[in-house]
Every structure is written in C-alpha cells, then in structure tokens.
Amino acid sequence: MNKSVVSLLMGLMLLSTSGCLSKLKTRQDLKGQTTPSQAEPQEEIQTASEGSEAPAEVPVYKQEERNEQIRSLYGRVEEAENEVQELRNSMIELAKSRQEEKAQSEAKLQAYEEAIKTLETQIQEMKNGKSHSKKPVEADKKAEPAAKKGGKDSNARLREDFYRGEDFFKQKKWKDAIVSYQKYRESYPKGKMYPEATYQIGLCFLELGMKDESKSFFEEVRQKFPKSSLAKKAKKQLNSL
C-alpha cells in the first residue's frame, strides 16, 4: 500500500510539472510573437530620426573658397578706404594751397591798390604834360649846375631819390621803388638818370603784374631815348609782353 501511495504521488507531481512547462512555453510563444510588433515602431522611430538629421556639412574646399572670397572683399574695402583717405588728404592740401594763394593774391592786390593810389595823380599829370611844365625844367637846369659847383655832396643830394629807388628795387620793394623813381623824375625831368628811372619803374610794375602800366613806361623810354641802350631793353620788354 505504501508503494501505491508513492506511485500516485509521483504521478501527480509529473502532471503538475508538465502543466507548468506547457504554461511556460505558451508565455514564451506569446512573448516571441509580440516582440516583432514592438520592434517595428523602434525601426520606424530610428528611420524617422535618421531622416530628421541635419544636412551634411559643406565640403572643405567650398568653405575655403568662401573664406578666400571674404578675405578678398575685405582687401578691396581696405583699398577703397585708403583711396578715400588719400583723396581726402589731397583735398585738404589743395584747400590749404588755395588759401595761401588767396592770401598772396590779396596781399598783391592790396599792394597794387596802394601803388595805384600813390601814383594815380602823378601818372595822370605826366599824361597831361603837367609834370613837364617850365618850373621843373628851370629848377632842373638850376639844380644840375649847382650840383656841379657844389661837388660830390650836392650831386648825391640831387640823385638821392633815384638811389633810394635803387635800394628799394634791390630789396624787391617795388611800390616804394616806384615812388622814389617817380620823385626823381618829377624833380629832374632832364636829369641824366631820367631814362633809367623810367625804365626801372616799368620793371617794378612788371614785377607787380601790372603789364599795362609797365608798357607805358617802356614805350616812353623807347620813344624819348631811341638811341640809348635802355631803348633796346625796353623794346625787348615790350616784345615779351
């Protein structure tokens, strides 16, 4: 009886064991069936993620070409800036030079106006023949013999205005030289230095840029003293004007 009981128990154990194994196999089968369906979404997600990745990087040679273009553009901009700066400096220098020229022109113009005002009456008198009246001639005739009698001191006083004009001429003080020469001409219209004083006045006006005024004095030398060496010089000056 004991053996039969043992056999029964062993049979029951075998049955329960086989049931558990069948249940375990069924769960594994179910798990194997569901695994592919669960894997498909992962593949789709992976494919979608691959499709949403950033575009491929620009090739290296294209990037270098782009950098070279940028460098070239910067170089052109720098060259343009340098050209603009040079042009600006040139304009500043030109403006300065024009201001200096303007100042010089104004100074010359002022000198011309002063010289014209000083000599306006004197030149008009010469044209009208007033400076060649009898009184200056008589004074000149009396002065020169007196100078000869008085010696070197009297002769120096006689030509003082002329030599003063020579000094001003050497100093390039054209206006003052004109006034001194003209004083000599008025005082001694028959003096020995009259032709030279007249010629020098023409040169002074020429230096001042007053060509029309200089012509009248050169012409006077040429007409009144045609045989003198100054007449030849005056003629050359007239031809050059």
Textual characterization of the structure:
This protein is mostly helical. The chain has a domain of 133 residues: Tetratricopeptide repeat domain (Serine Threonine Protein Phosphatase 5, Tetratricopeptide repeat, Alpha Horseshoe), CATH 1.25.40.10. The protein has nine helices and no strands. α5 packs antiparallel against α6, α6 packs antiparallel against α7 and α8 runs antiparallel to α9.
At CATH level 2, the architecture of one domain is Alpha Horseshoe
CATH class of one domain: Mainly Alpha
Query: Strand share of the residues?
Result: under 5%
Number of strands: 0
Mean pLDDT, all residues: 72
Taking the sheet with the most strands, its summary is: none
Q: Terminal Cα separation, in Å?
A: 168 Å
**Low-confidence runs (pLDDT<50, min 5 residues)?**
34-39, 130-151
- What is the fold named in CATH at topology level of one domain? Serine Threonine Protein Phosphatase 5, Tetratricopeptide repeat
The fourth-level CATH homologous superfamily of one domain is Tetratricopeptide repeat domain
User: Structural class of the secondary structure composition?
Assistant: mainly alpha
Count of helical stretches: 9
Q: Output the radius of gyration.
A: 60 Å
Question: What level of helicity do the residues show?
Answer: over 70%
SSE order, one letter for each helix or strand: HHHHHHHHH
Per-chain topology:
Elements: H1 2-51, H2 60-128, H3 134-150, H4 152-158, H5 160-170, H6 174-187, H7 194-207, H8 211-224, H9 229-240
Descriptors for this entry?
Serine Threonine Protein Phosphatase 5, Tetratricopeptide repeat, 241 residues, mainly alpha
